[in-house]
Amino acid sequence: QVQLVESGGGLVQAGGSLRLSCATSERTFSGVAMGWFRQAPGKEREFVAGISWNGANTNYVDSVKGRFTISRDNTKNTVWLQMNSLKPEDTAVYYCNRVFQRTPIGSWGQGTQVTVSS
User: Fold this and answer.
1) CB neighbours (10 Å) of residue 41?
2) Which of 96, 70, 77 is closest to 30 using CA atoms?
3) Cβ-based neighbour number of residue 25 at 10 Å
4) What is the DSSP string of 89-101?
5) Mean residue pLDDT across the chain
6) What is the pLDDT of residues 41-55, one digit of tens each?
7) Fewer CB within 10 Å, N or C, the chain?
8) 63 phi and psi, to 5 degrees?
């Protein structure tokens, strides 16, 4: 079973930055697209950002474009989400997962909490 371990969340003031990490045991990590998702209290989990298997292509939900950057290192089986200019509405638990066209296709990890204060 593939394990996903998210980390890097925390409490930050609006306008601040955080860098989330997702480490996976996926042996075929280098061959799969990955994505970040988030779930705010009382809301459904939503797609945030995705990256192709080789890192050549990325895509983002409109609300984070220009502020968040997804990246990966296939030699480290790790994907990151750099979050800048954070807003209170970015507050959520953030998860990573394998994706196909913005749809998660694997098991979920425990996520990492991001809280942005105003």
Assistant:
1) 7
2) 77
3) 11
4) GG-EEEEEEEEET
5) 95
6) 999 999 999 999 999
7) N
8) -70, -15
